[in-house]
Amino acid sequence: MSTPDYDIIIIGGGPAGLTAGLYASRARLKCLLIEKMFVGGLVATTETVENYPGFQDSIKGPELIQNMEEQAKRFGLEIMTGDVEKVGIGENELRNVKLTNKELSWSCLIVASGTKPNELGVNGESELRGRGVSYCATCDGPFFKDLDIAVIGGGNSAVEEGMFLTKYAKKVYIVHRRDKLRADKILQERAFDNKKIEFVWDSVLDKIEGSQTVNAIDVRNVKTDAVSKLDVGGVFMYVGIKPNTEFLNGVVSLDKRGFVITDDEMNTSVPGIFAAGDVRVKLLRQIATAVGDGATAAFAAEKYIDGMNR
Ligand code: NAP
Fold this sequence. Notes:
Layout: E1 6-11, H1 15-26, E2 31-35, E3 48-49, E4 59-60, H2 61-74, E5 78-81, E6 84-88, E7 95-99, E8 103-111, E9 115-117, E10 133-134, H3 137-140, E11 148-152, H4 156-165, E12 171-175, H5 185-193, E13 197-200, E14 203-210, E15 214-221, E16 227-230, E17 234-237, E18 241-243, E19 273-275, H6 287-308
Parallel strand pairs: 1-2, 1-8, 2-5, 8-19, 10-17, 11-12, 11-17, 12-13
Antiparallel strand pairs: 3-4, 6-7, 7-8, 9-18, 14-15, 15-16
The structure holds NADP nicotinamide-adenine-dinucleotide phosphate (NAP).
């Protein structure tokens, strides 16, 4: 069998993928990281990171990720932009990834493709996407200066991004389907102290209204069924995440939500394919846990390649 193009191909350029790339490159393996859009994943669109150890006064998300990228490149990691459409694992052929216009073969694959935001599928959501409906506060927040806006959800993203949006908006409603937040306690304390935030408890989004841009939302109280209208110029959706694993269907075992199932060493159900970071089934999705996954996956891949060559 001919030599594959790369010892390791990593899919996804967030903290997990970049850390895998750093460790693999330092192990002197020929390693390529493929990123769909821009390196950084979710962190690149995070204003401030406060819970990644080592930065006493916090660090900007884009700065942290740029440091990770430069560090990995310094040891020889190759990075390319590309959209992986399929992973090939045919028995008697080279194992490969199929991109839009080429195929690249590997000895080991590390899937670190992260997640994307859930959509709710309510009326007006897709019609007004990009015209008041947003999934990224850092990207779109400045467009909502001095407007009233709504954030949907009660997790870390909703609360953190809701607070970020108060830098621009006149008022931020956080609409949550329960009367208790899922977000970390420290974020909750800050949000409750923020005068620009008003919580709308026990409520779900029924409809987004507007013709050219968003001008109101209908929210329904799940306890009383009463529907009320909030006049807002924008709505930010933070109702959870789903994994970027479409290209893996039928290749490795996924859970029912599509997250990759791994063991402690990041092995998937297929020998030689590993997964790291938010894309895999795990308890805690953080930068701190993603980098640990990335390091473990690269180390396990190195051992796998050693075994192949023995
Ligand atoms: P998440 O933690 O899954 O929270 C999603 C929120 O949306 C929950 O409050 C959930 O309500 C609500 N929700 C889900 N489906 C809904 C529906 N159909 N209608 C209305 N509300 C709905 O997602 P996330 O906040 O995007 O965070 C994703 C991951 O990244 C998490 O692991 C999170 O900890 C991590 N993260 C961490 C940080 C940080 O450490 N600073 C920042 C951002 C994200 P319920 O609570 O009722 O289920």
